[in-house]
Specification:
Elements (H helix, E strand, L loop, with lengths): L12 H21 L4 E5 L5 H6 L2 E4 L1 H10 L3 H10 L8 H12 L3 H6 L9 E5 L5 H13 L2 E5 L10 H22 L5 H23 L10 H7 L1 H5 L4 H20 L9 E6 L7 H10 L2 E6 H4 L11 H11 L6 H14 L4 E7 L12 H9 L3 E6 L9 H19 L1
Parallel strand pairs: 1-2, 1-3, 3-4, 5-6, 5-7, 7-8
The chain binds iron/sulfur cluster.
Length: about 425
């Protein structure tokens, strides 16, 4: 008997995404060589809107860390950072990025023909996600003789109160003053409102794209989200990102209307919590595809789905997004968020990724998986791995565990 392999239905917007990313990286490269333009590096959930409004081109090093992971070269460069005194247990994005810089390598060379990340004039972090970004930025600040500034919201909050937001808003206002003084700039308030509005619109559209996965079958998976989330981070605050997500949303809505699923004969609907395993995205994606299991929702892709901007104080909106971001909340808030997500997306089982070098974005370390299992009677598989360092991830063992987990879900359907 001849069996026909079931083909994945490609997302049409992917071609447009490739063009968008090419233009973005080429423009960043041009900006870093143009004495009339300035480049700022920013953490992924940092205050990029104010940097754009002040005229900086914004680059996000964590994306570069993810590219190193996807290219499966992190393990090659991490030892170089370790040799420079960085712990092998520290963030593998940071270590691989530092190691690659010390070795003069960047995946941007092959992808776009540029020498590497753009030289920074300024580096801005927010510790709302972790302290690692601060030390990572400090490394490159020293290397390039560039100024490093940061925002430090209160950490791991349950309720976010008005005084928390006032405090963070004050930090953002002070950050603007320091940048203005250092670079001889003046913030244009109307421009800041415009950028925040664009940022919020892209974020809202991104949330709507992710929400289309509530449909049965789901038109996209977590693995599609990992690719298509790039503009909501890299081009946040631009019309380009808004246009992109309008097109992607229309495509996903058409898929829902036509009953097109991301995986064939969708049978199991899963949730992914924690970081992706970048070097093994393809292996994992293919395994779930073959098992007719769609990862319909994830904490990671939703991390850039912020609440809409109401046209009021743009710094207050930024303070809210800085502070309320999932990674910065306490266990109770996170648990409630996950329970809501399981319900919204009709989740049958969840996978928690215990990422060795990112305890900050790992939620299986303080009993949450057990509590959710008990409260919801939802099967949960915890896998050990890492976001970027493949040495901490056993592909064979994990795929076997996933097969057994899907078998367990299958049993529950019988
Ligand atoms: S959140 Fe995790 S992966 Fe991201 S920079 Fe911090 S330690 Fe690294």
């Amino acid at each position: 008997m001849v069996t026909m392999a079931v083909k994945r239905v490609e997302i049409q917007a992917a071609q447009r995404l490739r063009t968008l990313l090419r233009e973005y990286f080429l423009d960043l490269d041009a900006a870093s060589r143009d004495p009339g333009r300035r480049v700022a590096w920013c953490s992924s959930a940092g205050p990029c809107e104010l940097l754009t409004a002040l005229g900086f081109e914004v680059y996000f090093p964590e994306n570069h860390g993810a590219m190193l992971g996807s290219k499966k070269v992190s393990a090659k460069y991490i030892p170089r950072a370790v040799g420079a005194g960085y712990s092998p247990e520290a963030c593998s994005y940071m270590n691989s990025d530092i190691g690659a810089a010390l070795c003069g390598y960047s995946p941007l060379q092959e992808a776009y023909g540029v020498a590497g990340p753009p030289r920074p004039d300024l580096l801005v972090y927010s510790t709302n996600q972790c302290r690692e970004v601060q030390e990572w930025w400090n490394f490159f600040g020293r290397r390039h003789g560039a100024v490093v500034l940061g925002v430090r919201p209160p950490l791991h909050l349950g309720e976010v109160a008005a005084e928390h937001l006032r405090f963070v808003r004050g930090q953002l206002a002070e950050l603007i003053e320091r940048i203005e003084a250092r670079f001889g700039l003046k913030m244009d308030e109307d421009r800041l409102r415009e950028v925040v509005d664009l940022s919020s619109r892209a974020s809202t559209l991104w949330r709507q794209v992710l929400d289309t996965a509530r449909a049965h079958p789901s038109p996209l998976t977590f693995f599609d989200g990992l690719i298509h989330m790039a503009p909501v981070i890299l081009r946040r605050g631009s019309q380009t990102a808004v246009d992109y997500y309008e097109a992607l949303l229309a495509e996903m809505q058409a898929r829902v209307a036509d009953g097109v699923g991301a995986v064939p004969h969708e049978r199991h609907r899963l949730y992914w919590d924690g970081m992706p395993v970048w070097p093994r995205v393809r292996d994992l994606s293919e395994k779930f595809f073959d098992l007719h299991a769609v990862i319909a929702a994830s904490t990671y892709c939703n991390s850039w789905a912020f609440d809409p901007y109401d046209g009021g104080d743009p710094l207050l909106w930024m303070a809210r997004t800085e502070t309320e971001v999932f990674i910065n909340r306490d266990e109770e808030v996170k648990e409630h968020f996950l329970m809501e997500m399981f319900q919204r997306f009709d989740i049958h089982g969840a996978i928690f990724h215990n990422a060795r070098t990112c305890p900050n974005n790992t939620n299986s370390r303080f009993g949450m998986a057990q509590r959710l299992r008990q409260r919801l009677d939802t099967p949960i598989l915890v896998i050990d791995g890492d976001l970027s360092d493949a040495r901490f991830f056993s592909t064979a063992q994990t795929l076997t565990n996933i097969e057994a987990f899907i078998e367990q879900l299958e049993e529950r359907l019988r």
